[in-house]
Amino acid sequence: MGNKVEHTNKYQEIVEGLRNNTFKNIMFITGAGISTAAGIPDFRSKDGCFAQVQKKYNLSYPEQLFQLSSFKQNPGPFYDFCKGFNIDHCKPTKTHLFMGYLCKKNIVKKIYTQNVDGLELKAGVPINKMVFAHGKITEAACPSCGKEYDINVLRDEYVMKDKIMYCESCNTPIKPKVIFYGESLPISFILNFIFIYGCDLAFIMGSSLRVYPFNQLPDKLPSGTWRVFVNKEKVDDFFNFDDSYSKDLFLEGYSDEIIDKLVQDVGWQNDFNNYCENILNNLGK
Asked: Residue 213: helix, strand or coil by DSSP?
């Protein structure tokens, strides 16, 4: 059977690989589900952002609030939405901290995320390990000409005062540097594909893998890569979980709970807890 692994032993293979430092090039592919425990709502769940904004702003469809054409015509609703989306007080979750912990061990290749909150950076992940596929809410720019603006000025002097900030160069409404429908993904999303091909273990966490082209990332992983999908629901489109000899593993549950168990099973619990304590104690200093 060579290096094929029976289905019942897949989880133990991951545990032993981490314990024995077998994995040298780990990748994370993450979505909104890893940040909900930090108090940031996801988008597509029953009580997520989409459900809330469609009702609040009387939209034909929830994505309309995040469409570039709609924003340029009427930025008011999105500015109002931003008033309640202040993440300054949010702390990284166990999942974010796990990524930072593995970066400290120097075994993380790259982290691709759909999230715009930047909590990975608060968790100790170096910026050069990150690919923010949908941008970051911590920066601001003109969506037409690209001129950059201070996010604090946008938030404090305009959003919080119910005023619209317009670009000095082209008179387009300014917004945070998050990717709207109708905008291209950052060039870094493509340029960093080179790192995918050296990956030996990938954690896909907190994403339903519905948004193109982000959802193509698992398929781009090299053959033979362990792909561990952590989510509340199974997504079979990109995986072969039921094949006893595949290297696809589904772990059902909340990412923080899965990480807690994984860390304990590997034997990292004390060291990881110390890492988390140090990071969280230093936040805001």
From this structure: coil
> Which residues lie closer than 8 Å to 109 by C-beta, 6 or more apart?
25, 26, 27, 195, 198, 199
Q: How far is CA 179 from CA 116, 141, 143, in A?
A: 9, 11, 9
| Strands annotated E in 107-234 | 108-113, 130-132, 135-141, 148-149, 175-178, 201-205, 226-231
Tally of helices (H runs) and strands (E runs) in the chain: 12, 9
Q: How far apart are CA 68 and CA 242, in angstroms?
A: 41
Q: What does the block give as tokens for 285?
A: 């200093």
Q: Which of 277, 256, 275 is nearest to 38 (CA)?
A: 256
Output the pTM of the full model: 0.89
Active site residue 89: no
Q: Where are the alpha helices (DSSP H) in 142-186?
A: 151-153
Asked if the bond preceding 213 is cis, omega within 30° of 0, the reply is: yes
Place of tokens 């796990």: 98
Of 7, 89, 96, 134, which one is the catalytic site residue? 134
Pairing of strands 201-205, 26-30: parallel
The amino acid that residue 142 corresponds to is C
pLDDT per residue over 7-51, tens digit each? 569 999 999 999 999 999 999 999 999 999 998 877 666 666 767
Are 90 and 116 in contact by the 8 Å Cβ rule? The answer is no
The candidate with the shortest Cα–Cα distance to 235, out of 249, 224, 246, 254, is 249
Biggest alpha carbon distance in the chain?
66
86 and 200 in contact (C-beta within 8 Å)?
no
